[in-house]
Amino acid sequence: MHDETYHYNEQRWQALVAADALFTRPALDLDPDKARAYLDLDRLGVPGDLAGRRVLCLASGGGQQSAAFALLGADVTVVDISSGQLARDRQAAEHYGVAVRTVQGDMRDLSDLDHATFDLVWHPYSLNFVPDCLVVFREVARVLAEGGHYHLMCANPAFSGLTHHTWTGEGYLLTQPYTEGAATSYPDQEWVYDGEPAGRIRPPREYRHTLDRVVNGLLGEGFALTFLAESREHYPDAEPGSWAHFIGVAPPWLDSVWRYRPASSPEAGVPRP
């Protein structure tokens, strides 16, 4: 599915790797205890015994989550659009002496992966880089084994496209209609580059996925919600108009975990439409 969206995201992430942006830096200081704390599995309610478990890190290159799961004994596969990001996963795997499989591809097309292959799909912030979330959910349902878990982090749709740059002196101004699939863009945050300017790297192009679309889309594929949290960070002394102040007013991310219970199972949760 090498459409314009694919090429935009691939080129942007290749440029981010070249710039050593935050999410492209492999985690090279982990041990099993640090890996477990980094993944925060207890909070999410994901089974903590990962020895031999089959984990797909979806659109999750960079040598961070893949390394953490591998250190905990999981059988790890990473799918990412950027060859540079996948190189960082191989770098981290070599550093720790663990095995990680890397596959370059689009989260909307997992045809290189077999049906019902994984016990856990770990999907950090990336869903909003594609215009149709339902395509992704269908692919996740196909490769996830019955009873498996799907961890999804995505933009809080109420504040999608809103950043601290929209400070008016009194609050953060919402100007975009709450429309499924609407495209938005904004400057990268300063912390992505340790305060250094991004140069000529193109800004992220994101698409709003409304809450009802996400929730009903996953329910329709046979998923049952087991955990949901908004990003909760509060800095009382933060300067209004700063990123730290903004995230205390408008939580920018949602974190969720879903259990796959397809309709054909006797223990199915919500039937497919």
TrEMBL record:
The residues covered by the Methyltransferase type domain are: 56-150
InterPro entries the UniProt entry points to:
Methyltransf_11 (IPR013216), SAM-dependent_MTases_sf (IPR029063)
Q: Name one GO molecular function term.
A: S-adenosylmethionine-dependent methyltransferase activity
Organism of this sequence: Sphaerisporangium rufum
Question: Could you tell me what this protein is called?
Answer: Methyltransferase type 11 domain-containing protein
Q: Which domain of life is it from?
A: Bacteria
Name the CDD domains on file.
AdoMet_MTases
